[in-house]
Amino acid sequence: MTISQPLSAPDAPARPVVWSIAGLDTSGGAGLSADQRAADALGVHLCPIAAVLTAQHSRGVEALFPVPPEQLQAQLSALATDLPPRVIKTGLLGSVAAVQIVARWVDHFRASTPPGLDPHRHLALVIDPVLGASAGGTPFSTEAVLEAYRQWLLPRATVVTPNRAEARRLLKRPGGHGAPRQDLPALAVDLMALGARSVVITGGDAPHHHPTGPASASWCVDWLATPQAHGWLCAPRIDTPHHHGTGCTFATGVAGAWARGHVDADAVVLAHMLTRDALAGAHAAGAGAGPVKARDGFALPGRAGLPWLGLGDELPWQLLHGAPTSETAPADALRIPPLFAPFRAPCDGLYGILPDGDELGHAVAAGLRLVQLRHKPRDGLDHHLAQSLSHCAQHGAQLFVNDHWRDALALPPRVSAEPGFRLGLHLGQEDLLALSLDDRQRLLAERDRVMLGLSSHSLWELARAAGCGASLIACGPVMPTTTKDMPWRPQGEHNLRWWVAHSPAPVVAIGGLLTAQDVARFAACGPAAVCVVRGLGQGAHDMAGRIPPLRAAAATPQDGRPAPALPEPVLDTGPG
Fold it and tell me: What's the whole-model pTM score?
């Protein structure tokens, strides 16, 4: 048969390439089979490279047959020039020789990194240290293989994804899955001391975690430690007996998201969502645990929810103070109401950010009913706070105070002359992380009477803001902006739609919006409000002319376009 037309569009972009060097699971549940499903769900091209052949079924592993070194080397050499990887992901390697071969290939690709640049950006290495089968059977690793991991792979690792038992074995520590959760941060530090850049110690195999007592929902708690963020990454457990291939799916999810351009912490968030959705799609196969099934569209609304990320070493505030009960369905548990006072968007959807009390007064006089005082200096702060409070109370506007949250909480309670006046605090992520334990307790003590707004520029910051129970979450910068020097790529309409679909709190769009056309374009994406800073103008006369068309533009209805399947990367990870 002659085929005269190509089966796919000739101009379809090439997919990022991931090499998975792992075991072949004859039951089709884990290893390269799970890796292929995960890679397909993330839209990356997987090159499956067999390091070990196994004789196994759903109840365990009966035999392992490590691929001879020359055969493993031949597989990699065949791919090197035609399909060079963006990421190498390892699973079951089975021999010291295989570990050393992987390390040499990592060094080969990283050797072309320009001087002074990060070799991980040239080639990422994601290690899933498969040291045993969850179903039991033949041991997967010897002490010699473990030592090879410590000597050859961990010093080169971009991300390593052990479960609790694997982390302890890599560090020559006793204990299995059931050792205390509080040990995990120190284990991650020690793994990073061996050379791993990022560590995720997964908790799916650990005993069920009940954050507030036996009546609470059961949660899976992972420890995340990356250059971008660290903390407890949490989500409700998926109740299924079929979990074969969970670790493989998660690690390949990290590799696939990294290959698509996401930094370590964001790649972990997406891999977490992929794995939860795969557990929800698991099915029976054989008499033992069936395979999880990674699927397209895992990050669409209504599928895997955004996990919560804790603040520092604390569990997420929502988990500690507002967690759902066991009667709450897992699909709804991550979208419970905010922990802080709820935010109600103004009817026009315009959010004005002003530098002082005078300008804020002009803005509310021109019709704004949602404003933020962003007065950075301490000089004159009390005066500007009092002015802003008076103006907002007089006009029934909602007032957010940026940064100076202690001073805002010290303001006397004010009863509005008109309905609508409410007080909120807005914190950037750096300010949030800088809070002391006393600060956090004070802020939480006021959660019933004040709104909390938090900034977010990335998936991990969105997850942290959700975990804090914020009243509203800012997504930005949505357009290029000169008001702040930031490393973030503009979120654009694409990511704003994804934020709106996945945030448990109302989303406001911020950054670079100057004109009514800008405002209308992003209001159509469906945020609760659109923020304007410089575009408001200066002085009463200027604002009286500029604000009405901005208010009309902010009231643009949502255009009904669906949320994208995946967000775009927000920081650069490309080769230097």
Answer: 0.93
